[in-house]
Amino acid sequence: MAYYHRLGQIPPKRHTQFRQPDGSLYKEELVSSKGFSGIYSNLYHIYNPNEVKTIGKPKPFKWEVAKDHGLQQTHLKTSGVGTTGKDYLAARRMLMMNNDVMMGICSPEQRKMDYYFKNADGDELIYIHDGNGVLYSQFGKLEVRKGDYIVIPRTTIYRFEFEEEGPLRLLVIESQGPIETVKRYRNEVGQLLEHSPYCERDIRPPHELHIEKEKGEYLVQIKKQGMLHQYSYGHSPLDIVGWDGYLYPYALSIYDFEPITGRIHQPPPVHQTFQAWGFVICSFVPRLFDYHPLAIPAPYNHSNIDSDEVLYYAEGEFMSRRGIDRGSFTIHMGGLPHGPHPGTVEKSIGAKSTEEYAVMLDTFRPLQITTDALDFVDENYPMSWTD
Ligand SMILES: [Fe+2]
């Protein structure tokens, strides 16, 4: 992550004796990325993190590509979908993927997880479309709310507790590479620059420790190579009395993303929010439209020659598209041009502002939809530019 943070008690010098009230040592754990060359944190456990009691039978946890979908502009109508499964993992329905990234939806019936989850395959980015709650992890308690992006580095052990009232709808992105702030917005030591659409004040790390000391039966489901491995411990994995470093989960609200606007239409890089291997994430937020006297606020036709573009429509009316609802996905594939629907260009002229919110995923390698996505395909979308 972009800045150093610490919570709880830590010894003044790393890798030195740090004792519990009974005189025994706290158990230090270094959680590091890119071997020893990336960001890391040092965690201090009450119990030994290697003390596994039992390992259950692993369960398959992967998605299949819909092989026959082929090259076509795609609209997935997921707006009407209710709950998508019983619990946080069962409800995860990944809709598109390639070797770098997967993206899908999750609307669990159970609002409070009664197990812990660790994704050992990739970093996660959870966008809370609807819902409020708390992320409990080894790094402490983080209150999360509608509109938050939550970046969860791989191997973070966590559970969510969402409020029971109101709708709950999550957009889930899993990344093979680390999810990072945008490099061109950082100075040489990592601080976000003045022209960045958000800064460190907008980034919310865990704000207080959550220490579970009681012994008992604790299940951690670990995702690794398409399986959910069932690990049981005699103590909670949330037994951390202190930690410090740069690696931790954090939240950034889409409502804190400051739009960059111009006299003529600005391209998607001005909306970029995160970077990762093989893709970027952008945020479309309410903003003033272009102010050249002859400006056309709607985007121009665009031919992707080397990327696939996914838009997830979160709020408001998206001025360049027809037939799109809150919760729709559009996938505009490389190899085809895409652009505003007929009539929307003329309609946009003279418009002063937009109230839209959308999350965009641009990949640099082709995406394929999964068999789970077939339930939501709008068959008419590829021909929807023809009146
Ligand atoms: Fe585009």
Automatic annotation (TrEMBL):
Pfam families assigned: HgmA_N
Domain Homogentisate 1,2-dioxygenase N-terminal per the UniProt entry, residue ranges: 112-251
EC number: 1.13.11.5
Superkingdom classification of source: Bacteria
InterPro entries the UniProt entry points to: HgmA_N (IPR046452), Homogentis_dOase (IPR005708), RmlC-like_jellyroll (IPR014710), RmlC_Cupin_sf (IPR011051)
GO molecular function list: homogentisate 1,2-dioxygenase activity
Keyword field contains Transport: no
Similarity field: Belongs to the homogentisate dioxygenase family.
Protein's name in the database: Homogentisate 1,2-dioxygenase
Source organism: Algoriphagus marincola
